[in-house]
Amino acid sequence: MTRTAVVVGAAGGIGSACVRRLAADGYRVVAVDADERVRELPDCRPVQGDCTAAEVLDEAFAGPVDVLVHGVYHWVRAPLEELRREDWLRVLDVGLLSAWEAAVRVAEGGRAASIVLIGSVQADRAVAGAAPYAASKAGLASLARAAAVEWGPRGIRCNVVEPGAVEIPVSAEHLAKPEVRGPMLDAQPLRRLCVPDEIAGVVAFLAGSDSAFVNGETIAVNGGTTALLPGELPRYS
User: How far is Cα 219 from Cα 202, in angstroms, rounded to an integer?
Assistant: First the structure.
């Protein structure tokens, strides 16, 4: 029987990589995104619209779902004292509450399933000016643990993948600046940034049967950034 996977945030760099990987693994993929580029993705059923809208979720979850990948987010960059209440509400609505709403749709389907939430290294490490985004990503880990406990008896697993710096089109211009890229590479023991397919590979693992006893966990995919103490990376070779 063909399994169905819904990918929310499918038009982005990580989301589109997940669509490609899950389709290659034999899933029937429903790709959800407000960006019209979602309609150009191959091997999937596109649903264009805001994931915070009930009618968009109704269309995406028209039948039982075996895998949910939630990777959509909203970004507001400003110092804490300059943020507005509406900034916080929009970021949390898109990045956290929509994950909860989509996950509930999976649970209501009444079958065993795997939910994979795309977090961020910023859930654990602060970057100036990104507090709402970081808070939304940190909330995903708590959501995953709650879902694991409440829905585990139903055979529903929920886990988080936390990428570090990833080479995606939306950040390509920023990452190309030497003053940005240099320090980022210095903080990477592997001396490179992640690519979306590497995130999609971990997502595919959590979606499938090889991870059948992994539940309520957060898997960091950051090349060892969080293992490195501040300072110059030692060179022993």
Answer: 8
Q: Which two tokens stand for residue 54?
A: 């009930």
Give the separation between CA 144 and CA 215, rounded to whole angstroms: 8
pLDDT in tens, 47-82: 999 999 999 999 999 999 999 999 999 989 999 999
The per-residue pLDDT for range 110-156, each reduced to its tens digit, is 999 999 999 999 898 888 999 999 999 999 999 999 999 999 999 99
* Residue carrying structure tokens 């994950």: 99
Name the phi and psi angles at 102, rounded to 5.
Answer: -65, -40
* Residues labelled as active-site residues: 133
Closest by CA position to 34, among listed 14, 6, 55, 8: 8
Q: Does an H or E element contain 70, and which?
A: strand 67-70
**DSSP state, 166?**
B
Alpha-carbon gap, residue 81 to 215, rounded angstroms: 37
CA distances from 53 to 31, 39, 85 (A): 15, 18, 20
